[in-house]
Every structure is written in structure tokens, then in C-alpha cells.
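dumping this here before i forget
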Amino acid sequence: MTNNLNLYTVFTYLLYALAAVTLLVVSFRLLNKKKPVPAALRSAAIIKINSYKSFGIMATIRFNDAGAPNVGDQIKQEGDTYRIKGVIVESPLQHDQVWECKLEKM
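structure:
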């Protein structure tokens, strides 16, 4: 009888230890997830915007700051926020900080 009680006690302690280790691993993974860095809100004016069913939103945008737009940058226009999904690099409208971009409405 004492042999069965000892096996039961050992099994119970092993089960508690396994649960504790599992809880530690899960909490470590949850706490150490990489948090996304919020994208910068660029100062810009949307000159022309077109919505295409198959391709999405294309816009002609004039940026107030220097530098080319990057994928992931965000623009706010009249209460709506847009994320840049693509930039047409060799557009004839690339003078005076005007760029053709594919946008996603947030």
C-alpha cells in the first residue's frame, strides 16, 4: 500500500512540475513577442486618387518633406489614414516631390 502511495505522490509532483514548466514557456513566449513599430505619419497632400476594382487605390501624392516615399509609410487625408503599399519609381510625375503610389485605406 505504501508503494502505491509513493508512486501516486511522485506522479502528482511530476504532473505539477510539467504544468509549471508549460506555464513558464507559454508566458515567456507571450511576453517576448515582437511588437510592431508604428509607421511614421508623413506630411502629404493627395492630388488625385483613383480606385480600381482589380488593383486597388492608386494616388498621385505630393509630399511636403524631402525624400522618396517608402512602403509602409502612412498618410492622413481628410480624416482617413492610408498606408503606402507600393511606389511607382520611374513615373514622369516625380518632380517637385510628387509620386504615384498604391494605397491601402486603414
